[in-house]
Write a structure and sequence with these properties.
This protein is an alpha/beta fold. Helix content is 43%, strand content 15%. It has a 6-stranded parallel beta sheet with strand order 5-4-3-2-1-9. Strands 6-7-8 form a 3-stranded parallel beta sheet. Helix 2 links the parallel strand 2 and strand 3. The longest helix has 15 residues. The structure holds 3-phosphoglyceric acid.
Length: 214
């Protein structure tokens, strides 16, 4: 699979941005808190514009497109400048589109069979989604037995109280979560508050000990 872009943070903010004009300021707020990657999800009409703004104006931020669920979306996120795409799942057409576009891609899985199917297609880093519903830490520990070489980005149900436990799991490369960009803080443009949340998460997680690339 195509190597991931390099980033240091082991926490990936999962963002639903309703106002693309906030994207650049938000990127800087996260960088100020030590987070150099952000996943802007295709859950709002402004998402592509937001990705484009960060890709253009904040090159030190690795901007990822999240909630990529259709092959046709791959061309759009590439055109916007996304350096990485994440999906809650995995389909053949999506994998083919990402490969054809040369776009680094992290597909989502929830079961051992899905992990094995993804591995057959060359993926070694997978998004465990929804992590809490999939079994959380216990599921990650169980997967490490038969599938020890696979690394995960658990997303869904991660928060400051369980972040350390997830990151300490040996098959966890990094985690994703929405807690770093709460809707009320975005609405109030509380950049200092978001930087504080990012800084707290960075302090808990520390730098990646090795490249998150597959
Ligand atoms: C989502 O589905 O929005 C992401 O997985 C983030 O989940 P979270 O809100 O539990 O962090």
């Amino acid at each position: 699979m195509i190597a991931l872009p390099r980033f240091q943070s082991r926490v990936v903010p999962v963002i639903a941005l309703h106002d693309a004009t906030q994207a650049v300021r938000l990127a800087h707020a996260l960088l100020d808190g030590g987070i150099d990657v952000m996943e802007i999800t295709l859950r709002t009409p402004q998402a592509l514009q937001a990705i484009e703004a960060v890709a253009r104006d904040v090159p030190q931020m690795v901007v990822a497109a999240g909630t990529v669920t259709r092959a046709a979306e791959v061309a759009s996120v590439c055109a916007a400048g996304a350096r990485l795409a994440l999906s809650p799942g995995l389909t053949q057409t999506l994998v083919r589109a990402a490969c054809d576009a040369g776009l680094p891609f992290i597909p989502g899985v929830m079961t051992p069979g899905e992990v094995m199917a993804a591995r057959e297609q060359g993926f070694g880093l997978l998004k465990l989604f929804p992590a809490a519903q999939a079994g959380g830490l216990a599921m990650l520990q169980a997967l490490a037995g038969p599938l020890p070489e696979i690394r995960f980005c658990p997303t869904g149900g991660i928060h400051p109280d369980n972040l350390g436990s997830y990151l300490a799991q040996r098959n966890v490369a990094f985690v994703g979560g929405s807690w770093l960009t709460p809707p009320d803080m975005l609405a109030k443009r509380d950049w200092a508050g978001i930087t504080a949340l990012a800084r707290a998460a960075s302090a808990l997680s520390g730098p990646a000990t090795d490249s998150p690339a597959t």
